[in-house]
Each structure stands twice: as C-alpha cells, then as structure tokens.
Write a structure and sequence with these properties.
Elements lengths: L1 E4 L2 H12 L4 E3 L6 E5 L3 H11 L8 E3 L3 H4 L8 H10 L4 E6 L6 H4 L4 E5 L4 H10 L3 E2 L14 H8 L5 E4 L10 E4 L5 E4 L5 H8 L3 E2 L23 E3 L12 E5 L11 E4 L6 H16 L5 E4 L8 H11 L3
Parallel strand pairs: 1-8, 2-8, 4-6, 5-9, 10-11, 12-15, 13-14, 13-15
Antiparallel strand pairs: 2-3, 3-7, 4-7, 5-6, 9-10
Length: about 325
C-alpha cells in the first residue's frame, strides 16, 4: 500500500492502476473514494471485497464531465439537465435509468445508476487520465466512519488498497446528496448539497425513506457511518453517566465546562458548513481515544444540518 502525494505523475500511476483493473483511493470534495473502472466488473468486485460491502448496496459512479455521464445514463430528463447545469461539479449525485453497458454489480441489479461529478481537481484529473468513469464509494470498511484524509484511508483499509492518492483534507466532509430524478424527485440521502438549494431550482422534493432493506443508493441502511466506539445522541449533558471514559461531540463551544474525558467541537460558532467539514475528523479522533462511549449533541436539521443528523442517527444505530 502506497500513500502518494497527488502529483501529476502519481495521478497518472493511479490511472494506470485503474486501467489495469486495480482499485485506487482518491480525494473528492466530500470524502475519499475507493475507485475502480466502472465497466470492469471484476475490478468493481475488488471494491466490495476491500470494504466488506454487501453487493445489494449500489455504488456511486464518478465522471469528469456531464458529457461522460451519457455513457452511463440511458436518458437525461429536462429536470436532470437543470440540476447538472446548476450543481455539477459538486456534491450532488443523480439517480437515473442506466445504459445496459453498466454492470449489474455497480447498480446492485437495479435499472438505475447513481452518478456525480466531483469538484475536486484530483478526482477530475484521475478520471480523465484513466479514460473511464470510476465507480467509487467511500474508502472505508463498510458501515464505519467515512475518511476525510488519506491517513483515515490508510488506517482503516491498510494493504487492501494498493495506491492512496493524498490530496489533503476533504473540504465538505460529508458524502454527496443523492436525488432520484423523476416525478416527483426523491431525496434518497441528505448530503453536501442542502435540500433547500435543490428545491429552489426544481420545486418540492419528496423525502425518501432513510432506511431501506433494498437500498436504491448508498447510506440507506439503518446502521452506517459508525465509529467502533458506541455512540449515543444526547440532548442534555447533565445526563452523562459516572464511571465511564466519555468522549463528547459538541455542536458548538459549550457554555459550561463538561465532565468528559475528550471533547471535540464541530464548530465553535455553530456554523453548519464548518460542522459538516469537521464531522468525520472529530469522530475519528474520538474513536481513536479509547473511550467507553461517545455522546453527540444534535444539530439543527436545516441546510447541512440535515446531513449531519442523518450520519449521527445512523452511527447511533449500530
């Protein structure tokens, strides 16, 4: 396993590995992805093996341009075109009918495929150099904390991935928003693009079931995004138990001193964008600190707060 600075030469090496049927971890603006050539089902199977991911959970495919998405989507509706023109590149994944060339392992046998265009220059350069769309879920063991640095990938996957391209910390820090385009459009997963911004462009969006036994998109299982340390959402810090090593995830700087062993603050001022960017990094630090339990404060469920609470609620379900 090599952690390589994402220089042009190393990106070319990563692209060669993708073309050769290997898997490569790389940065996006949301979290680090674990990528393979979307049209190589054997390579895509390596993603499931490395992550220990169930094959009924579909993958997101990354493209370097809206034009490249035409290799994956059988049709692009007027509504989808509005969203692509407005929000690509960016943290929005669109679910639309797929072309037959997309292997069933990528879509979990569904007749739709989830696609996005990242705004991260390393992701774009890797896809261009590989000459193919790249299927890439988050680069972590299935169900556990998503990685927002190359070190998170190294620590969680180790030798299960041959190349990790280090492009620094992820700017947004939570996964992409996933929208099934249709009448009505359905939010399958809240994420890095707030729902309110989508609705300003296309009108009312239906909120899908956040828990699905047969998921249409990643992140729809009951338990996901979890630290190994048990996590509980708490509304009143007075309820903290005695006699345990306690990690505490605070939304903003606490007004009073808390009797905890390790404190992480998502945003001193309560800024939701900063909180989202820090979410997984703070949870990784708490998880690595040897605590008995992690308590997490809720955040306002508006804008990016909807995505943060989705991750915390699923983390608390393990």
């Amino acid at each position: 396993m090599k952690v390589l600075k994402a220089t042009p030469a190393n990106i070319r090496d990563g692209a060669q590995a993708i073309r050769a049927g290997d898997i490569v971890a790389f940065p996006t603006e949301t979290v680090y992805g674990l990528g393979a050539d979307v049209f190589n089902p054997v390579a895509c199977a390596k993603i499931f093996e490395a992550k220990q991911r169930p094959q009924f959970d579909p993958l997101i495919v990354h493209v370097e341009s809206p034009k490249q998405a035409e290799l994956l989507f059988s049709t692009i509706s007027p509504q989808a075109k509005i969203l692509i023109d407005k929000f690509w590149p960016g943290p929005l994944t669109l679910v639309l009918p797929k072309r037959p060339e997309v292997p069933p392992i990528v879509t979990a046998g569904l007749d739709t495929v989830a696609v996005r265009m990242s705004s991260h220059p390393v992701a774009i350069a890797l896809i261009k150099a590989a000459g193919t769309p790249i299927a890439a879920p988050s680069a972590n063991p299935f169900g556990y904390l998503s990685p927002t640095t190359a070190e998170h990938v190294r620590d969680q996957l180790g030798d299960r991935v041959s190349i990790i391209l280090d492009g620094g910390p992820c700017q947004i820090g939570v996964e992409s928003t996933i929208l099934r385009v249709g009448d009505p459009p359905v939010l399958l997963r809240p994420g890095g693009l707030p729902l309110e911004e989508i609705e300003r462009e296309i009108g009312k969006v239906t909120i899908g079931n956040p828990v699905a036994s047969a998921p249409e998109a990643p992140g729809q299982l009951k338990s996901h995004y979890s630290p190994r340390t048990p996590l509980t959402i708490i509304t009143d810090p007075v309820q903290l138990p005695l006699g345990k090593k306690i990690g505490y995830l605070s939304f903003k700087k606490p007004a009073h001193e808390l009797t905890v062993n390790k404190l992480e603050v998502l945003s001193a001022t309560g800024d939701l964008r900063e909180a989202a960017a820090n979410l997984f990094t703070c949870l990784h630090r708490l998880d690595d600190a040897g605590m008995d339990i992690i308590f997490a404060e809720p955040v306002p469920e508006e804008g990016l707060g909807r995505a943060i609470m989705n991750r915390l609620q699923k983390a608390a379900s393990r």
